[in-house]
Amino acid sequence: MLLFSVLTCIARGDGVPTAINTTVILPDDLISLHFAAYRTEHGKNNQVVMEPQYPWDEEIGGKGTVLVDPYDNKYKIWYISQPTLDITGSLSGAGTQRMITYAESQDGVTWTRPMLSIVPFANYNKTNILLNVSDGQSIQYACVFIDNPTAPRFPPAKRYEMMVMAMSPPLGLPKCTTSSKCMFRLWSSDGLNWNPGETLNFPEGFSDSLYINRRSDGSYFGLVKTSTDAPPGAYVPFDIAAGDIRTLAYTESDNGTVWSPLQRAWSPDWRDSPGTQIISSVSTILAQSVGPPNSSVYVGHIPILHALSQRISLQWTASRTGQYPWFRPTRFDAIPLTEMGEYGSGMQWPYRNFVPDRDDPTVIHAYFSGCQGIHGDIHSTWPRELFKDAGFPQTTGVFQWDEAIATKDSHSPVRTNIWFRGALMRASWTQGRFWGIVPAAGRDIPGVIVTKGYDTNTSSGKRLFANLNATRGYIVAEVLYDTTSKLRTSLSSEHGVELANLVPVPGYSLSDCDNITKVDNPSRMVTWGNGKHTTLPTLTTNQGKVIAIRFVIKEAVLYGFQFL
Fold first, then answer.
1. Which residues, in sequence order, are CB contacts of 399 under 8 Å at separation 6+?
2. Are 5 and 289 in contact (CB under 8 A)?
3. Can you give the pTM of this predicted structure?
4. Are 539 and 456 in contact (CB under 8 A)?
5. What is the spatial distance between Cα 488 and Cα 452, in angstroms, rounded to a whole number?
6. pLDDT at 87
7. What is the pLDDT of residues 430-456, one digit of tens each?
8. From 126-130, 314-318, 394-398, 403-407, the region with the lowest mean pLDDT
9. What burial class does residue 324 get, using C-beta atoms within 10 Å of its C-beta: 0-12 exposed, 13-18 middle, 19+ buried?
10. Closest CA to 462 of 538, 546, 378, 552
11. Which end of the chain has fewer CB atoms within 10 angstroms, the N or the C?
């Protein structure tokens, strides 16, 4: 299976990452690619589903959780709101407070903010605010989990669990001693009225964003933003974190209270342009690896900051364990940024998890905060004007005001960060069609890939099914064995293997394969010999115990495959 996303899990209702009936291809599933490339599938039906409406939710931020509640079958969202702000000539910090707010929906598209008597705001006695902190600091990254009604682990008073990050303790909990930003656990019987749980023993070193996921066995793992010194070429002077580069780290816990030290999970690599960074944590789902069933991988969206333009977009990512490494099959956006000034044009902030459609099992949704603006005020002449008004001399470099104006271009000489203003948006995908393999050249030049080895104990007698779209071209496959018996089933299967020593099993060659064409099918069975061979072969003693599959793809897309 091939794939990558800063982790976000598919929410099965209780918020636990749940395996979906789909496969994805990861780079380490393959030992050879010739004229083959990855294709990113863009989200469909991208739409605004909830806009700012009240003085306290001028920003409908990400940094929260969307679920289908198994107790009443409603779509529910715990999200970040930020108040209206009026800046008239000053860079005031007013309006930066973030609060946990709530909305619900019958269909996932039309959302209602219930007016509750929990947290008032200004002259409003009733709001949809569930949590804030009294000193005006922020509380955010609401990671919500719902106890499984068919196998409850907690009493009704703890049916809903929230882990949340705050700079000041909520609900009277003690402050942590390891960081200026602390993690807290809260409990609720209804998901609205929250009670204090505990201050978590979270590891030092995390920055201002993270997502926690709860596994089916009750343990937890987190993906948190960290930073390190920027390497040569990655210094962006007008970025708020100039001199640093944002990365991702992994931590885990058996009980949610005590957490392991941070371990590296993701950082930019040689395929990334200068200034590419991760700006927040990953939203995730749990999918299946290609080949034998019951081998799962985490798939998600990772929010990428393009520091030079200060825009943020979501890209696909995947990991077999949630730990390092996280793969990105492409560097293309999963949801294209729109024209500046529109919702979703400047920044896209993901929620903790993907949400399978409640009524259509073939569709999966990603909710995100789609902001109209960018992360920093990079074109601002304000700092120059302040320096000039203060009488600073016009020296060489960025403070030569006349030159800056004459060139018709300006960039702030200081690091900036501005207020985020966005709406709740949703994009959708067909399950299992997040990215695929296509020919790198196109037209008459096919792409050719060879998979890693698979033990015949897991493949013999099974059928090969492929998720593909060959409406314009074709896909054929052949089953290979290694004449030197060096082909391995490990992730380092390419070591010691010469492709010239991989030969087709008689009756299962490309010429024997029944051509797959003019078809778009998520589960197309591959056969050979005009349907004579419908199952994968059992090798002879001389042929060894490991097979590989070679796919030839011409004007078609291969999304995944599985032995069933």
1. 384, 387, 392, 393, 413
2. no
3. 0.90
4. yes
5. 7
6. 57
7. 998 999 999 999 889 999 999 988 888
8. 403-407
9. middle
10. 538
11. C
Contacts of 330 (CB under 8 A, 6+ apart): 38, 39, 40, 315, 316, 435
- Give the closest residue to 95 by CA, choosing from 78, 81, 116: 81
Q: Which two three-digit tokens encode residue 182?
A: 């602390």
Token pair of 193, please? 């009225």
Buried b (16+ CB within 10 A) or exposed e, 170-184: beebeebeebebbbb
Tokens representing 448?
């050719």
pLDDT at site 420 = 85
Amino acid at 372: Q
What percent of the chain clears pLDDT 70, i.e. is strictly above it? 87
Rounded CA-CA distance 332/316 in Å is: 8
* Coil/strand/helix, residue 539: coil
Between 279 and 119, name the one with better pLDDT.
119
Please compute the mean of the pLDDT values over residues 394-404 and round it to a whole number. 51
CA dist list (Å): 219 to 154, 167, 174, 215, 285: 14, 25, 24, 5, 16
pLDDT band at 491 (very low <50, low <70, confident <90, very high): very low
Residues 22, 25, 31: CA angle, nearest 5 degrees: 150
Task: Give the containing element (helix H, strand E) for 385.
Answer: helix 382-389
Q: What is the DSSP string of 171-201?
A: TTPPPPSS-SSEEEEEEESSSSSEEEEEE-B
pLDDT tens string 256-273: 999 999 999 998 888 888
* Cα 197 to Cα 121: distance, rounded to the nearest angstrom: 25
Rounded distance between C-alpha atoms, residue 387 and residue 401, angstroms = 10
Tokens 């009704």 correspond to 156
Distance CA 238, CA 474 (A): 49
Return the residue matching tokens 């492409």: 330
**Intra-chain end-to-end CA distance of the chain, in Å:** 15
pLDDT score for 413: 67
Rounded alpha-carbon distances, angstroms, from residue 30 to 449, 467, 481, 490: 7, 16, 15, 11
Per-residue pLDDT tens for 186-224?
Answer: 999 999 999 999 999 888 888 888 999 998 889 999 999
Nearest to 349 by CA among 5, 54, 60: 60
When pLDDT is averaged across residues 142-165 and rounded to a whole number, the result is 95
Bridge pairing between strands 311-319 and 422-430: unpaired
Which candidate, 227, 167, 222, 173, places its Cα nearest to that of 197? 173
pLDDT for position 20: 45
Q: Give me the sign of the Cα torsion angle 7, 13, 14, 18.
A: negative
pLDDT value at residue 240: 87
Q: Which of 404, 247, 237 is nearest to 307 (CA)?
A: 237
* Each residue's pLDDT tens digit, 16-39: 444 445 688 988 889 999 999 999
